[in-house]
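Appendix B, record 7
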Amino acid sequence: MSDSAMKLMVVILDQPELIDDLITGYLDLGVQGATVIESRGMGQIVRQEMPMFAGLASLFPESTGSRMVLSVMPEALIDQVFGLIEELVGALEQSNSAVCFTVPVDQFRGIRH
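Structure tokens (predicted):
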């Protein structure tokens, strides 16, 4: 697989209850690995830990936390993964449920297949 272009797919999922469906979808598409990290957005930090900015809290939607999913995968899978995410959360342009993006991977080592 090292001959094909690879991408790092980053998904920030604001609906933690969907993580099992996302990982199952990854497996169905042939994604061979992912790391899931519990995360918090800036809005949640402002609401909970920065009382001096309490007036700004209304600018940020309430959140129970999110999951960041990192996965290096062949570029050929990227469109399918974006499709999977939109099946789960709806149109990304209109949804407040997820943010996703890719980053080129010039080199990688240590990935076992």
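Remarks on this record: Helices lie at 19-29, 42-49, 78-89. Residues 12-105 form a domain with the Alpha-Beta Plaits fold (CATH 3.30.70).
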